[in-house]
Design goal:
CATH architecture: Sandwich
Number of helices: 1
Radius of gyration: 18 Å
Distance between the termini: 49 Å
Length: 175
Amino acid sequence: MKLSLLAGAGAALLLSVSAQAHVTLKTPEAAVGSYYMAVLRVPHGCQGSDTTRIRVKIPEGVLGVKPQPKAGWTLDVTQGAYEKPQQFHGARLDQGVREISWSGDLPDAYYDEFVFRGFLSSSLKAGETLYFPVVQECKQGVDRWIDTAGDEEAENAAPRVRLIAPASGQGHGHK
């Protein structure tokens, strides 16, 4: 009995360690038709090497994206066309932020978070998963957190948020 409990505890520890090895989003759920504050958690560098750049691809349906600057880091925003025009605060949008990049230095021994916010368009569907692929560049090497196949334990799983239905009476409150 003790051996099976120890084995189970060891397996749980390994799973939590492997999950912590990925770049992830702090908040795993968000309502369609509302603002979402995305907090990318970066737990380490690339195989022991310091992180020098974090790039996140903004998925279709995330509008009005605004990144949070970080002291000591250079912020770069790439604009581009949407696959389909979107409605945002009564205006038709054909383009918007498609990628955010922070460049700086994060030693492998430290943890940090990179933040942006955006509006989750009503064109998105509750019950689906929205992926934010991230490329983590380091002094030596690159980690690509870009797997969008849906397996949370995949070696290179992309950060994701599960979309939920808006609460009844929910407007588009600013967070």
